[in-house]
Design goal:
This protein is mainly α. The chain is 85% helix and 0% strand. It is built from 19 helices and no strands. Helix 14 runs parallel beside helix 16.
């Protein structure tokens, strides 16, 4: 069904998905530990400071990791190891230099940033967390180099196992010494520094050491950087999109509500985990189908992929709607069960987004990367505008409305563009069937809750989850939301 090249891509995507699952799992554990230890206010202040640092990284990396992804394989295929050596050393020096400059600049203006936020003592947190910038820059650089060498296993090791594991070790240390948010900031900085040093040592052994005897060759640095800047702009848009609600909320409300909102976004983003791996596998397969069999085959693949995304996302939506408050109470404590409607609004946005399937990747399959960038700009504009309008009066509920609206609108725009250009769309009867399964599961869950009092225990939660899953799977099976052809296609993709 697939060529050897496509199978290689899919296999690499599978490794990446496995790594993403590990990273997400570890990430949820350390966030739970830290959230319980430092409380909503401490978590909120940490999120604001960390968001500022996260956005500043764009001006350090300037698209260099993606540049390595492009030029290392290019020079490798051309057997120009000397140019790879020059590229690696030159871009590494640029990255390290920019990290020092940005760290110093952010340190200097931290006092001003603190004055314009509603959160107290944010200046000290920023000054601690800016020390993380060089470490994160090194980790991102190492990952970019490994992706360039098509060594996805090493990228997974560095980015999705080593780095989150040291965050987890730091969170455990925080519990042992019973520290607050400032203590956590120092532990976080040290943990990231250790992870960066280990990552750099691995890269030195795998990549730099074999190039020691190779003679360096000159290359056009201007050409490399001209490729990097547009990528940096795109990364900046997406980073702002993911952080703008925290930053704008920091201007109007204190740290505690933002800490609560961080937990809600963390929980709601579970739905994005479904779309991510499907989209990553879908793109290379779709590109192959386009070249071999044309638009119609891509449309068929788009529909089947969307079917699975919708079916899986619908159950996650139903489960969190029913038991999200229980999950937060059990794992994060009752302090975080505030304005719970914000969580439900975020979930609705992700659900509507799932109905369009991997619309962004479909545009990329057809080579329309500019449209993807335009859609990202639309989402960012809507998100920022609604945040400024709604947060002052509605707090984190306003932030949730802004985020949900922007991601749902972005999906809708992408869907319309695809249909307008290529006359394909994934909207089918299975959308209604999955909605029917969702409602049956919600009704069954409400009845179950009425009959059995919640004990806020993990075994109670697991039993409820298993019951809901049984009801949902049974319903979608009865209404034939998934057919044998879909199962066969899914199996062939997994085996590939």
């Amino acid at each position: 069904m697939f060529s050897s090249e496509q199978k290689t891509i899919i296999k690499s995507s599978g490794i990446g998905f496995g790594g993403k699952f590990i990273k997400k799992s570890i990430g949820y554990v350390w966030v739970v530990i830290v959230a319980r230890e430092i409380g909503p206010d401490g978590l909120g202040r940490f999120v604001i400071a960390n968001s500022i640092v996260s956005i500043s990284l764009i001006f350090v990396l300037i698209g260099i990791p993606s540049t390595l992804d492009k030029y290392i394989p290019k020079y490798k295929n051309e057997k120009k190891s000397g140019k790879i050596k020059t590229l690696i050393w030159t871009t590494f020096i640029i990255t390290l230099s920019l990290s020092v400059i940005v760290t110093t600049g952010l340190w200097q203006i931290s006092g001003y940033i603190s004055k314009i936020t509603e959160s107290k003592n944010i200046e000290e947190l920023i000054r601690i967390l800016v020390l993380v910038i060089p470490s994160i820059a090194v980790i991102k650089y190492v990952c970019g180099a490994y992706v360039g060498y098509s060594n996805i296993a090493r990228e997974v090791l560095v980015n999705r196992i080593i780095t989150p594991s040291f965050k987890l070790f730091g969170a455990i240390l925080l519990v042992i010494i019973q520290g607050g948010v400032i203590t956590w900031a120092y532990i976080y900085a040290v943990s990231m520094s250790i992870a960066a040093m280990i990552s750099l040592c691995i890269l030195m052994n795998d990549v730099v050491k074999p190039l020691v005897s190779v003679r360096a060759r000159s290359l056009s640095l201007r050409r490399v950087l001209s490729y990097a800047w547009p990528l940096s702009a795109n990364k900046l848009i997406m980073r702002l999109l993911s952080r703008s609600d925290y930053l704008i909320a920091g201007l109007y409300i204190g740290g505690s509500p933002i800490g609560v909102y961080k937990v809600y976004t963390h929980l709601a983003s579970v739905m994005a985990v479904v779309l991510g791996p499907f989209a990553k596998i879908y793109k290379p397969v779709g590109s192959g189908e386009l070249s071999d069999k044309g638009v119609e085959k891509v449309g068929e693949l788009y529909t089947v992929t969307t079917r699975w995304i919708v079916i899986l996302s619908s159950f996650i939506f139903a489960f969190i709607i029913l038991y999200g408050a229980d999950v937060i109470t059990i794992f994060f404590t009752e302090e975080y069960v505030v304005s719970i409607s914000a969580l439900y609004i975020l979930l609705l946005g992700y659900l509507l987004n799932s109905y369009a399937g991997p619309e962004g990747k479909t545009l990329e399959v057809f080579g329309n990367t500019r449209l993807s960038l335009v859609n990202a700009l639309i989402m960012l504009g809507v998100n920022i505008t609604l945040n400024f309008v709604l947060i002052p009066s509605l707090g984190i509920i306003g932030a949730a409305i802004a985020t949900a609206t922007s991601i749902a609108l972005g999906a809708a725009v992408g869907l319309l563009e695809i249909y307008s250009l290529y006359k394909i769309h994934p909207v089918r009867l299975f959308h209604l069937k999955s909605i029917f399964g969702l409602f049956v599961t919600l009704i069954a869950g409400v009845i179950f809750d009425a009959l059995f009092e919640s004990k806020y225990e993990i075994f109670d939660l697991l039993f409820k989850g298993f019951t809901s899953l049984t009801v949902y799977v049974g319903t979608v099976w009865i209404v034939d939301a998934v057919n044998k052809r879909d199962l066969a296609l899914l199996k062939s993709i997994i085996k590939a």
